[in-house]
Design brief:
This protein has 326 residues and is an alpha/beta fold. The chain has ten helices and eight strands. It has an eight-stranded parallel beta sheet, with helices on both faces. Strand 4, helix 5 and strand 5 form a beta-alpha-beta unit. Helix 9 runs parallel beside helix 10. The protein starts with 8 loop residues before the first strand and ends in a 23-residue tail after the last helix. The relative contact order is 0.16.
């Protein structure tokens, strides 16, 4: 249960998956983030980190649905991912999932809800990812996960072969968007029709990121009892901060704002799942890739307890004279 979870234990899942969108390279995201020293950086925070490795799956058979590319791969990968997320949470660890494209949110959120039932999601993204196969202009499933996950939109879908394991159990009232600035007409209609909590960049400019994340949490978890899930698309950042991603949109969050989001959610002590997706090391030059990977690691560190004020001194040391440290 939520109350018995050890906040110092973290399980990492890699999802080298890119079939939810057309650009090669995003499957390398977990590898390059790990190779940049992620686990060492988390252990410096005093965390007990266990890497569960990468998701492996066998594609589902014939899963042809109009305007949904590679549904068989998406279905099989996210099914296996849901099972793994449930296992990590069952092991008493918070779960950090490294993508891969944002279609993996289908699996991570499904697994989180199945494991802990009462879940609220903060979707940090330039895009709403609310399309269905009928409204998507591209057919790319990484633009559909929120619509697939939420119960209010379940009637808008045909039967999806291979997806019978996934039933929409998350209410759209339990989802808050932060960082939106590229929203399709249909997505805007859905946001307005259902009164979805959605803060775009104009709201960030008007209220400031501290008030935005506070309002978002209050909206989706007013009683402060839900298990929180942050699904963070690196394209929520301005491309000047994170250029190596597949669908960049100018005018996004600064890295400082993104870190503050994660610091504030961490302080709730209810953040039990984090997705970090859409880092693509095949896009951009060496400096672009380095900036993007560094941004990803800073965001993850903030989510898992790093504070810019500096780490707290362990108990028992605070009474020691300062000369001890010379």
């Amino acid at each position: 249960m939520l109350g018995t979870r050890n906040y110092s234990k973290v399980g990492i899942i890699g999802v080298p998956f890119e079939k939810g969108q057309p650009k090669e390279g995003v499957a390398l995201g977990p590898k390059v983030i790990r190779e940049a020293g992620l686990i060492k950086e988390l252990e410096v925070l005093g965390l007990d980190v266990l890497d569960y490795g990468d998701i492996k799956y066998v594609p589902e058979g014939r899963c042809d649905v109009n305007n949904m590319s590679h549904l068989g791969d998406v279905a099989a990968c996210t099914n296996r991912l849901s099972e793994q997320v449930q296992q990590v949470l069952k092991d008493g660890r918070r779960v950090l999932t490294l993508g891969g494209d944002h279609s993996l949110g289908i699996g991570t959120i499904d697994g989180h809800v199945k494991a802990m039932q009462d879940v609220a999601v903060i979707w940090v993204d330039a895009h709403a990812d609310l399309n269905t196969n009928k409204t998507s202009e591209s057919g790319n499933v990484h633009g559909m996960p929120v619509a697939l996950l939420t119960s209010e939109l379940s009637d808008y879908w045909p039967h999806l072969p291979g997806m019978d394991w996934q039933q929409p159990m998350l209410s759209i009232r339990n989802v808050a968007y932060v960082g939106l600035r590229s929203v399709d007409r249909y997505e805007r209609l859905v946001i307005e029709k259902f009164g979805i909590t959605a803060y775009g960049m104009e709201d960030v400019e008007r209220y400031g990121i501290h008030d935005i994340i506070s309002m978002a949490i209050d909206k989706i978890d007013p009683d402060g009892v839900k298990s929180l899930h942050v699904s963070f698309d690196i394209d929520s950042l301005d491309p000047l901060e994170a250029p190596s991603t597949g669908t960049p949109v100018r005018g996004g969050l600064s890295l400082r704002e993104a870190i503050h989001i994660m610091e504030e959610v961490h302080r709730t002590h209810r953040l039990n799942a984090i997705d970090l997706v859409e880092v693509n090391p095949r896009i951009g030059n060496e400096r672009d890739i380095k900036l993007t990977i560094e941004a990803a690691i800073y965001i993850i560190q903030a989510a898992l307890g790093y504070t810019r004020r500096g780490l707290k001194v362990p108990k028992g040391i605070t009474d020691m004279p300062l000369q001890t440290f010379k």
